[in-house]
Amino acid sequence: MANIMVPRNKMNSKGILSVVLLLSMSLGVHAQEQQTLRLSLADAQQYAVEHNYTMQNASLDLKKAEYSKWQTLSTMLPQVSAGFDYQNMCGYEMKLSGFSIPMDPNGTFSITASVALTGAQIVGTMLQNIANEMTNINQKQTEQTTRSQVRSVYVSILVMEDIVGLLDSSLANMEQLERTTQESVAAGAAEQIAADKLSVQVASLRNSIKANQRSLQMLYNSLILQLGADVNSKLELTTKLDEVLDLNYLGGLAMTDFNIEKNYNYQLLEQNEELAKKNVTMAWMDFTPTVTAYYQYSNKVYFGDEGMNMTPPNMIGASIKLPLFTSAQRYSKVKVAQIDYAEALNSKQQAEDGLRVQYNQLRYDLVNAVETYEIQKTNLDVTKRVFDNTTEKYKYGHASNLEVTNASTDIITAQSNYIQAVMNVVAAEVALENLLGK
User: Fold this and answer.
1) What sign does the CA torsion over 139, 141, 147, 153 have?
2) pTM of structure
3) CA 52, CA 121: separation in Å to the nearest integer?
4) Which of 256, 54, 238, 237 is nearest to 145 (CA)?
5) Which of 203, 234, 273, 284 has its CA 20 to 30 A from that of 79?
6) pLDDT tens-digit readout, 247-291
């Protein structure tokens, strides 16, 4: 076997190891950049509920409210503390009728258990329960909003992808016409102005496609943010547009009865009413007594000769305090709370009437949006067929350059109207679902 000479300037083992580590890190970063999420609409909504930062904060708020509740409850439970006191009077002796008593160093260990109870504490616990319920409703409302936002962006992407596909097909036809016309111009069978007009239309279609592609990328970025996914993730949407725009479901949704109790805004108003009512009770609690009870154990030890121990080892006590006169301050506080409660009742009634009016309006908006969508979908299909027919006629000289230009302009306008119609349907659907508490 031939000897292989290794040059001295070759990398040593440490250098080789460094290269391997760098390659591994590079491959890891590359793998991260290539992470792909294949998501249906339902999967995307659930992913957002689990990873969206706003949802995470809502969950944290719920935990924080629970801890706040226990903070309030703990004020009504016994409080126990332990302590140790040390005293050293530096050799001082107490003189009494001709004899002296040495004041030796001493230490006292004590344990104290106490409990104080007021009416305000009891009502405060009730108020905290209401606050917890409001936090819970807010979390559900945040989840509803998150799902709605994901749905809107998801559908926008599906629509934009369909439109880009449609325009790509139209562009291919226009480019074929442009080439044919240029050949006719070269052969002297057509004028240059005809080819120039087609070139302008081709450029216009390309510009429209590029604009839609940029919008599509922005929508994907927006969806990634809504999901709470890694910013380097790639998304593949598996739900089709026809599955999302279920006209039978939309028709049934428009006929759904309005149960106002399921509306999250109304639920918050109910809790706000209950909160105002409990605040009235809380104001009255200023007239109630405060009851306190305690137990204390003490053990005093002298570090020297036994001294005079006057500290009892066990002691219990109780007290009750009743406020008598505060210059009408407490009474005024009650009246303010009663007025706040009356205002809460008025606000709730006004909001209830507004929600019922909004329900009728949103039903009308959904029906109108669906009808407009069906018209624009048909218009887009017809415009596409007119465009294909006109370009086919143009190839054989049966259609003018102006007709091709108009057909190309019409298809761009039709796709714009179609996009708007789809988004109006989704917006109307989401608004009605949110109102119904779906």
Assistant:
1) negative
2) 0.70
3) 37
4) 54
5) 284
6) 888 888 889 888 898 889 898 888 888 888 888 888 888 777 878
Q: 255 near 128, Cβ under 8 Å?
A: no
Q: pLDDT, tens digit, for every residue of 144-200?
A: 888 988 998 998 899 888 888 888 877 887 787 778 778 777 877 667 887 788 788
User: CA dihedral defined by 226, 231, 233, 239, rounded to 10 degrees?
Assistant: 20
The span from the CA of 222 to the CA of 39, in Å, is: 15
Helix ranges restricted to H, 263-400: 264-284, 329-395
Category of 304 on φ-ψ map: left (φ > 0), alpha (ψ -120 to 50) or beta = left
Q: Is 226:153 a contact under the CB 8 Å cutoff?
A: yes
Q: Measured between alpha carbons, how far is 266 from 262 in angstroms, rounded to an integer?
A: 8
For residues 108 and 88, the answer to whether their CB atoms sit within 8 Å is no
Domains and CATH numbers, the chain: 35-78+118-288+326-436 (1.20.1600.10)
- Report d(CA 205, CA 399) in Å as an integer: 20
Distances (CA, A) of 173 to 168, 395, 411: 9, 11, 13
Q: Which residues contact residue 229 at a Cβ distance below 8 angstroms, ignoring those fewer than 6 apart?
A: 37, 47, 51, 235
Structure tokens at 365: 């908006």
Question: Closest by alpha carbon to 121, among 271, 275, 291?
Answer: 291
Backbone angles phi, psi at 296, to 5 degrees: -135, 135
Could you tell me the sign of the dihedral formed by the alpha carbons of 324, 329, 335, 339, in that order? negative
Strands 99-102 and 36-39: unpaired
∠ CA 285-289-293, rounded to 5°:
125
Q: How far apart are CA 356 and CA 105, in angstroms?
A: 79
Distance, CA of 54 to CA of 226 (rounded, Å): 9
Angle at 413 between CA 412 and CA 416, to 5 degrees: 90
